Amino acid sequence: MRKLGLEARVPHNGCRPRSAPGLGAILLLGLAILCLTGCGRRPDPYGQQLSRAMEAGLRGQELLGEGQTRRAERAFSRSLEINQGLDNPAGTARQLNNLGAAALARQDLAQAADLFRQALFLNEQLGYAADAALNLANLAAVAQKSGDLGQAAQYLQEAREQARRAQSPRVLGQVLCQLAGLALDQHDPSAAAAFLAEAASANREAAVRGPWHYQQGRLYLSQGDLSQARDFFHQALTADRSTLNRLGMGADLQGLAQVEEAQGDYSRAFLYASRAFRLYAATHSWTKAQQCLETLRRLNHNGRLGQNLESLEKQMAVGRAAAAPCPPPRAAPTQTPSSSPPAQPSP
Description:
Layout: E1 5-6, H1 23-36, H2 45-65, H3 69-85, H4 89-105, H5 109-126, H6 129-145, H7 149-166, H8 169-185, H9 189-199, H10 206-222, H11 226-242, H12 246-263, H13 266-282, H14 286-302, H15 310-323, E2 343-344
Parallel strand pairs: 1-2
Helix pairs in contact: 2-3, 2-4, 3-4, 4-5, 4-6, 5-6, 6-7, 6-8, 7-8, 8-9, 8-10, 9-10, 10-11, 10-12, 11-12, 12-13, 13-14, 14-15
């Protein structure tokens, strides 16, 4: 699944998420705060603590994107603790959402759903419709991973209405891409095409560009138009690379592998699938890496490529063994790459 991302997109994954404002925008916000308190002077105690909370949250997002989920959870938990100590409900909601995205990344669906619901309650009470839409989209990703596609669709329709109410093109575009992905999973290309057409105007948003092109690639692939599918997956890969959406990049590469396999070019398909495997392994996304490994076995056999997969098999076994024994910390109060986005972390 391509998750909507946290504002984890994640997530956007994925719809791929898979999204938070750029680091530059957040740093500019921090600069504005410093200048308002007086450039060259130390900020007030509240401002100092707020800055620490923001830094911890940003560090958590970086770690989560690198696949270091447990370290990310510690950073998010620290930011949550500071925000709660400041009586900052908006910051508290953001970090609850981020902790939910981390829980989803390690497949703890029950904890992820609980954390997203806590964040949703706060954002609804605060009147933050865009953030509430993000929480609902992340709950849809949980439902989709659980196999409850009807519940996922309901959450996404609610998210769509919240995003419209907030007049947020970015969030609305992400939700529509996630809806398109869900429609494709349900073999409804007409509905997917309609959602993508509605999301087209949000394509100028960096966080939407990758998921939109990716779902367009899936749509054309489902219709047998391999040339168009290849073009859209390439554009999705370029867009996701520009925002360093690693899970999105992996899904794009898997899409390209599918196109080449359908074209009968097993060698090129093997190349794309092996790149996706290494990307997932580097980010400790072992479930997705396993899917790629199965694809590589099939391509190697059907194409009679004679490739030695022993090193990849060993990397897979070692990675899974290292991830399995340690229980994750408890947080505070496919053949086609899945369209369910990675959960979206909050900025």
